[in-house]
Amino acid sequence: MDSSIKQGQLITLTFEGKEFEVIVIDPNGLGKGQPTVGFGFRMMQKHGGLPEPTLSKWLTKESGFEGDSNNDVLSLEPPSGNRFRVIQISGADNNQYIVIEASDWVVLASDVLKKPGKVSKTTQHKLIDFLTWFAVKGFYAEAYTALKGTYTAKDSRATTKWLEMRQTGKIERKSYTDLLQSQGCQSSDYAHWTDRVYQGLFGMRAKNMREVWALIDGDEVIARNHIPETQGLEAVRYCEDMVVRLFIDDLEQAHDDAINYSRRKFIGCAGTN
Q1: Closest by CA position to 12, among listed 110, 85, 93, 76
Q2: How is the beta sheet containing 84-90 ordered, strand by strand?
Q3: What CA–CA distance (Å, rounded) separates 111 from 157?
Q4: Angle, nearest 10°, between helix axes 41-48 and 102-114?
Q5: Which of 31, 92, 99, 124 to pair with 3, CA 20 to 30 A apart?
Q6: Per-residue pLDDT tens digits for 157-171
């Protein structure tokens, strides 16, 4: 057993901007020195949206040997009728914890979405966000390992920043599309204004810029095409947000002004193309 990792060890883990209180279940659960970890109901309510009272209602107990309550076998039974192992464990702080292993929480979330029972739509949407967050980061970790042979802390931070930017962008883009809609724009007009932003920032339409980002080295003829996708998408998000902030009564003028501000901030020069 790796002496540096103990059963019941407590850690605070920041995963994709979300802070989890985590406990070590088995120091060698995935192999020597490779522990399994889990977290409790409160963390799932906070980050997955499943209310603690609901989880407690799903908790089932079977008596252990010789009437010893410490040997009671616990499981969680959601509306599907499937059972998920619940672990009672003594923490390093001498408190007792009821936890579910992390990957089981992910499977449980999926199970609830398939057969939600009386789980509210709001909770279901939070569970979808929870699963999406885990899935994207895990996929990129595997992709980086396959491409580079390793997945470093720097890679992890870059992926986190990109995910957070995309999530923030979705919220802010709704304000932008709401503005366009309030000015009488139809769905077919959105592409025009999106291209207006991309053309002003990068000198090409959105479709073409995305094609450039899809290339490993970009277009060596035009230096600005080497703007990384993460930086480029952040510039687009910022620009669209500035359009909302600067708009008075003229969409074209608001876009021109927003593009100028965005180019100064992200690209280092003003003026539209």
Answers
A1: 93
A2: 10-15, 18-26, 36-39, 96-101, 84-90, 73-76, 59-62
A3: 30
A4: 60
A5: 99
A6: 777 766 666 655 555
Q: From CA 91, how far away is CA 201, in angstroms rounded? A: 53
Q: Are 72 and 82 in contact (CB under 8 A)?
A: no
Query: pTM for the whole thing?
Result: 0.53
Question: Among candidates 215, 216, 214, 209, which has minimal Cα distance to 236?
Answer: 209
Q: How does pLDDT run across 85-139, given as a tens digit for each residue? A: 999 999 989 999 999 998 889 889 999 999 999 999 989 988 888 887 777 777 7
C-beta of residue 79 within 8 angstroms of C-beta of residue 112:
yes
Do residues 209 and 195 lie in contact, with contact meaning Cβ atoms separated by under 8 Å?
no
Please report, for residues 109, 170, 220, 227, the alpha-carbon distance to residue 268 in angstroms, rounded to integers and kept in the order given: 45, 25, 19, 12
Amino acid, single-letter form, for residue 104: D
Are 212 and 218 a contacting pair, CB within 8 Å? yes
- For tokens 């088995």, the residue is 26
Contacting residues for 245 by C-beta, under 8 A, at least 6 apart: 258
Query: How do 73-76 and 84-90 pair as beta strands?
Result: antiparallel
Q: How far apart are CA 139 and CA 119, in angstroms?
A: 28
